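Supplementary notes for students who missed Thursday's class. We covered one full example, reproduced here. Read the sequence, then the structure, then the short commentary at the end.
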Amino acid sequence: MVALMRIGLIGDLHANLPALQAVLAVMGNVDQIVCVGDLVGYYAEPNEVCSLIRDIGAVCIRGNHDAYVTGALVPNTDRREDYRTDWTRETLSEANFRWLEALPTELCLSVDGLTIRTRHASPWDEETYLYPDAKATGDVKLDRDEFLVVGHTHRPMVVQAGEGLLINPGSVGQPRDYNPDASFAILDAQARCIVHRRVRYDVDAYQRRLKQLGWGEGPRLMLSRLR
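Structure (token representation):
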């Protein structure tokens, strides 16, 4: 059993370094940071994001975009350019590529009698979206004192799933709930509680930088406060 109490939950970073830096600056003291995948894809700093996550010792699993880049999954051909899959693969250092390639699809922590499982999308794959009202979400049945932490939807969520909780910390790098402020969560294992938090960073400046780099309009607009 791991002796942890406060755990920082992050996911869907998508190579957005300023958003990740903003989250880490306000997260405060935690015993462990857990990342539920999608470190890369869409945006411009895959090496910087991977290196920072490695440097802080975060526990990570892979997401579908990480798997697209390493070749473990095949992305939608029509979205491949917006995902920046090939550019990311070419840009990643050898060390970061191999680290990403080695990430598992699932991790499990036992903390204060609480079982915390992490998957990127769902218990059964890396691409199913678990929204609060989705049929697939109703298929998730957890035991007492079991939390399942996922990402993928880019939306914060806490729902009852059987006797446990299904948690999504929201997206650091590309929220999709009409609020572009970077999203994360703090899990207090002893109190069995989860608190979602948001932090603002300069989205407009980041959009301008992406435009200068030649990023397509679609990924840029997904950061907009008006989306």
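Commentary. The two ends are 43 Å apart (CA to CA). Strands lie at 6-10, 32-35, 59-60, 106-111, 114-119, 146-149, 156-161, 164-169, 182-188, 193-199. If anything here is unclear, bring it to office hours.
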